[in-house]
Write a structure and sequence with these properties.
Strand content: under 5%
Radius of gyration: 25 Å
Number of helices: 4
Distance between the termini: 92 Å
């Protein structure tokens, strides 16, 4: 009986510790921005991409929160009986400014990451980008 209780205790202990063990394992490297998929980066380049991407994350998050809150308030205002056009305009401007800042942050990050690449890797990134784009313009029928 004592042996059985020891076995059950060990089984319970191991079952409870499995999630903790999974958390302790190093996870996969962070996802690369889409324009870098398919490009082989050395370890130093990966470190620079990681540093730049994660340094920008709090800034992006803050602007995303501002835009989300402004959109939510604008929806609430539009549905309320106390609609005020000036307040709606201000909320729309706040959301638009946050989205503009997000676009600028993303453009800066892309430029920082392109600077990490070798000329060959930049050419490869451009070729991958061009391959995903499809036709640049439609030809006019004559």
């Amino acid at each position: 009986m004592k042996y059985l209780s020891i076995v059950v205790s060990l089984l319970l202990l191991s079952a409870c510790s499995m999630p903790l063990l999974a958390l302790a394992q190093p996870g996969p490297p962070p996802d690369l921005p889409p324009f870098l998929h398919g490009i082989e980066l050395n370890e130093a380049q990966q470190d620079k991409v990681f540093a730049a991407t994660y340094a920008q994350a709090p800034l992006l998050r803050e602007q995303e929160k501002i835009a989300f809150k402004a959109h939510a308030q604008l929806r609430e205002l539009a549905a309320s009986s106390a609609y005020d056009d000036a307040k709606a305009r201000a909320l729309a401007n706040t959301a638009a400014q946050a989205m503009a800042k997000i676009s600028l942050l993303q453009a800066r990050l892309e430029q920082q990451l392109l600077a990490v690449l070798t000329p060959e890797q930049r050419q490869q990134a451009q070729q991958l980008h061009d391959g995903r784009q499809g036709p640049r313009h439609l030809e006019r029928p004559e």
